[in-house]
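worker-03 picked up job from queue 'complexes'. Input manifest follows; four sequence lines, order preserved.
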Amino acid sequence: MIVVPLGKDYELQDCPIARALELVGERWTILVIRDCFLGVRRFNDFLAHLDIPRAVLTNRLDRLVIEGMLKRREYCPGRNEYLLTKRGLSLWPILHSLAEWGDQEAAPRAGRRRLFAHVECGTDLDAAGACPACGIVPDAGDVEIRPGPGAELALRDDQVTRALLRPHRILEPLEITPARSTRSGHVRSFRRSAQATEQRLPSM
Amino acid sequence: MIVVPLGKDYELQDCPIARALELVGERWTILVIRDCFLGVRRFNDFLAHLDIPRAVLTNRLDRLVIEGMLKRREYCPGRNEYLLTKRGLSLWPILHSLAEWGDQEAAPRAGRRRLFAHVECGTDLDAAGACPACGIVPDAGDVEIRPGPGAELALRDDQVTRALLRPHRILEPLEITPARSTRSGHVRSFRRSAQATEQRLPSM
DNA sequence: CCGGCAGGTCTGTTCATTGAACTTAGGGTA
DNA sequence: TACCCTAAGTTCAATGAACAGACCTGCCGG
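worker-03 finished. Artifact:
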């Protein structure tokens, strides 16, 4: 491995937009990163939430690690989780502008599914990511994701989608409810082991 | 035609980011739109500047017209130009965030190739697209593109790239210098026919 | 009526994506 | 020990897009 063949090279397009797209412009890449922001960290959780072919997910995670957007960490022998690095966190404005545009121009079918709120005061963030009540742009650790008016109409019903419906802080690992098998002891015990690092959103 | 098969459907990802990517997430699409903002309007100019396969360009332009991002206009019988619509202009924040990230994180090899300046006062715009001198965010019609410190090192040398090195207002049609053949009469006469419409950048 | 140009379409090949099956390694249960 | 489970990959055949290059068409100017 460590082969980095992957097309998507706009090599002769010497412009910052093309350079950015070389790194995050491949299919699925942005959605993987979005999930990282929402708190997804594990291979199988990405898989369940994205419906992405396993091989493609492997490929995208590898590439993001190589490019320094994510770091891989063994939370128990042989099992990895993927965390946003400083560089990965710096992608936030791109995700934010895409989300804003998607909300404005690609009409949500029944209100937003997810809202972002300032934990301190409970106020919903405005379009620019600022807290209207406090007049500041909260750090990542102080932002909570919670279900919006359209949440009930979710098209999906996997564990990760369900976990995302429960209010939780951004970047914090999700509380996944195991499908069946109540006795998956050793995995459960690791679920909350990886606490939020000193990740901060550059601007939100 | 008017077939809209094209994959790239993240249909089950009911989230604004996924919806945005369904419309502008395909390969080349963003670069086509970037060129529109720079002033490129014609099939052959996109072709020369992007090194994109003709069939793919046709496909992307068709799709963008269908989705209402561009409008097609016959500037002389049988020849089209492509103009950003209001909806297309609303993509600016996405391009801007990509360009910012590309400049910060995917290091420009020798300074920026293009700078944006406020025409009224000649001041370079800041990262948010505002004029530091006037304290306003100028409309598209008042923004000028001009070569930056890295412009000389351009990797490309097609007509469009050369045209982009000459200062000009954003969204205005480019002054393409015909390669050879000084006597391409009827085309020249149309070059400046299509004046800037009332396009305005929603925020820059 | 010839050549050039804008704006495409057609074609064969290459490359990426997909879904499904298979692999590896550790752990729990009986 | 034998058996089953889960996480996290890898491998593979089939499909579908992207690619480069040749070809086509309508219009023009000389």
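worker-03 released lock.
Chain A has a mean pLDDT of 79.
Chain A touches chain B through 48 residues (CB under 8 Å).
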